[in-house]
Amino acid sequence: MARRRIDPAEGARALDAWRAAPEETPRPVLATAVRHALEELAERAPGNSVEVRVPPFGVTQCVAGPRHTRGTPPNVVETDPATWLGLVTGAVAWPEAVAAGRVVASGTRTDLAQVLPLFPR
């Protein structure tokens, strides 16, 4: 089970606020929404083989497989907060985000299309 720091209800409110006005979401609310989604990903796809980074707000490890312990992880996904929230809500599709360069995914285990979106409408 993933360790939660964001109350799920607070995370859901932050995500709803972002959905309502993505460009106008205050930075603390945006950070809460991103971190909530990262925690949910770790809960739904437990493991340590992929590192998902959404700078500057958070990072998590997920997906079952070989555990990474030192140095640069072999499987890394990195994206910006708006793209991440688009992916987890279903507003942005994984293949399109990768093809457009909005997601950088390196490694053999980094295709998250099977676990996204986390919070579709």
In short:
With 121 residues, the chain is of the alpha+beta class.
Mind explaining what this structure looks like?
- This protein has 121 residues and is α+β, with helices and mostly antiparallel strands.
- The chain has a single domain (8-106), classed as 2-Layer Sandwich (Nonspecific Lipid-transfer Protein, Chain A).
- It contains four helices and four strands, in the order ααβββααβ.
- It has helices at residues 8-20, 27-44, 81-89, 94-99; strands spanning 50-54, 58-62, 76-79, 103-106.
- The chain has a four-stranded mixed β-sheet with strand order 2-1-3-4.
- Helix 1 (8-20) packs across helix 2 and helix 2 (27-44) crosses helix 3 (81-89).
- The mean pLDDT is 93.
- InterPro entries: SCP2_sterol-bd_dom_sf, SCP_3.
- This is Bacterial SCP orthologue domain-containing protein.
- Residues 27-118 form the Bacterial SCP orthologue domain.
Strand and helix map with partners:
Blueprint: H1 8-20, H2 27-44, E1 50-54, E2 58-62, E3 76-79, H3 81-89, H4 94-99, E4 103-106
Parallel strand pairs: 1-3
Antiparallel strand pairs: 1-2, 3-4
